């Protein structure tokens, strides 16, 4: 539905009276952004042509302040649809609503797929705001820096969501990104955390054994601690984090499936025990169903991302920790993107990373490409269901 058609369903005067001056400026900016075609390109796999299409969904922005005025949240019309207000003013960005690193819309409600609740909120038609990671210094925003660098990279700019700007609202800082799910009603969606290591080296540099981490480990698996750890009643942060990686497919396969959403079904997020190759293949088969077209298009897109990654100067000098591959498809389009760069860091001068080598403290390898190799293989070889041969449900028992 276009912005014009939405405006026809809600009184313009009613909307403007609720937005206020600051909200009006931001809303006008959003309307112009959609109305004016830009030069950016989105890559999708066409069902009919079987080739990458370059659709012009970009936008050129008028010159405005990066920080919208912090007006009170506008009240939604009591007897009218609130969709327009949600998209134009996002209710003054009330992030207490269910939101995360992957947002989905079912009918008129946003709900969480995966990630950290409160980190994302719908901003305007086709964009989201993502909150700066907790603990980052005001002048230190690794995710913003990564998106800005990748957006200017000729190899990677089409492998990530479109990046627009950084802004401040209500005393907090956000980045504005393309909403990859904009325009979809109920697609197939999968969020995959990449790498054999999803924690930063400085997170585990303290060798002090901690009793609280020991207690967490025992709650998850009473047999996990060694005799010495049982005797001490404590484990180090490194030991605990590696234990957590080994409980999923991350340590062995270099990727883990965080969440899956199938049309007409609630999200499947309890996937901690999907770690063996056959379980991963079964989950992928369930996600793809009988759609061989989607499988072929997705595998080709991931091979393209891998090739772009290997050619990028940015990735030659950075460790990519905790990033994800975000996959979405419907009857017409198939897409995949790299997302989540809050833990991306430049490696020390003189350090070389190939993103496939085994991690050792100090070498900054994270296994991203090792995991991408395994993910592509899993998608290419998964046995899709056929008549009388339905995909096996993954074992997600705790």
From TrEMBL:
Domain of life: Eukaryota
SUPFAM superfamilies membership: SAICAR synthase-like
Cited Gene3D superfamilies: Inositol polyphosphate kinase (3.30.470.160)
Keyword Kinase: yes
InterPro entries the UniProt entry points to: IPK, IPK_sf
Entry EC number(s): 2.7.-.-
Claim: Repeat is one of the keywords in the record: no
Annotated Pfam families: IPK
Stretch forming the signal peptide: none
Keywords on record: Kinase, Transferase
Root EC class: transferase
Homology family: Belongs to the inositol phosphokinase (IPK) family.
Protein name (Swiss-Prot/TrEMBL): Kinase
């Amino acid at each position: 539905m276009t912005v014009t058609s939405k405006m026809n369903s809600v009184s313009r005067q009613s909307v403007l009276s609720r937005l206020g001056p600051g909200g009006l400026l931001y809303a006008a900016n959003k309307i112009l952004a959609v109305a004016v075609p830009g030069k950016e390109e989105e890559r999708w796999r066409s069902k009919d042509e079987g080739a990458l299409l370059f659709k012009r969904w970009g936008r050129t922005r008028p010159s405005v302040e990066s920080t919208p005025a912090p007006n009170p949240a506008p009240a939604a019309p009591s007897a009218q649809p609130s969709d327009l207000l949600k998209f134009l003013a996002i209710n003054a960005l009330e992030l207490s609503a269910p939101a995360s690193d992957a947002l989905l819309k079912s009918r008129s409600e946003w709900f969480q797929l995966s990630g950290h609740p409160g980190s994302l909120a719908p901003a305007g038609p086709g964009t989201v705001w993502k909150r700066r990671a907790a603990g980052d210094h005001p002048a230190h925003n690794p995710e913003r820096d990564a998106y800005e660098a990748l957006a200017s990279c000729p190899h990677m700019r089409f492998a990530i969501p479109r990046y627009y700007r950084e802004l401040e609202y209500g005393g907090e800082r956000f980045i504005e990104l393309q909403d990859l799910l904009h325009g979809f009603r109920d697609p197939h969606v999968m969020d995959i955390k990449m790498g054999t290591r999803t924690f930063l080296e400085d997170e585990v540099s303290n060798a002090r054994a901690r009793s609280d981490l020991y207690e967490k480990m025992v709650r998850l698996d009473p047999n996990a601690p060694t005799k010495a750890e049982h005797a001490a009643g404590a484990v180090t942060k490194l030991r605990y984090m590696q234990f957590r990686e080994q409980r999923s497919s991350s340590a062995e396969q270099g990727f883990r499936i965080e969440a899956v959403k199938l049309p007409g079904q609630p999200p499947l997020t309890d996937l901690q025990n999907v770690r063996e190759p056959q379980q991963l293949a079964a989950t992928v088969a369930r996600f793809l169903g009988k759609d061989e077209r989607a499988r072929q298009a997705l595998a080709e897109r991931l091979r393209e991302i891998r090739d772009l990654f290997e050619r990028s100067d940015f990735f030659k000098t950075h460790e990519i920790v905790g990033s994800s591959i975000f996959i979405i498809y419907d009857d017409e389009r198939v897409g995949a993107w790299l997302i989540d760069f809050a833990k991306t860091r430049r490696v020390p001068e003189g350090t070389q990373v190939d993103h496939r080598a085994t991690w050792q403290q100090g070498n900054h390898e994270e296994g991203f490409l090792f995991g991408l190799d395994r993910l592509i293989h899993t998608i290419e070889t998964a046995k899709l269901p056929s008549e009388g041969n339905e995909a096996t449900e993954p074992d997600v028992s705790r």
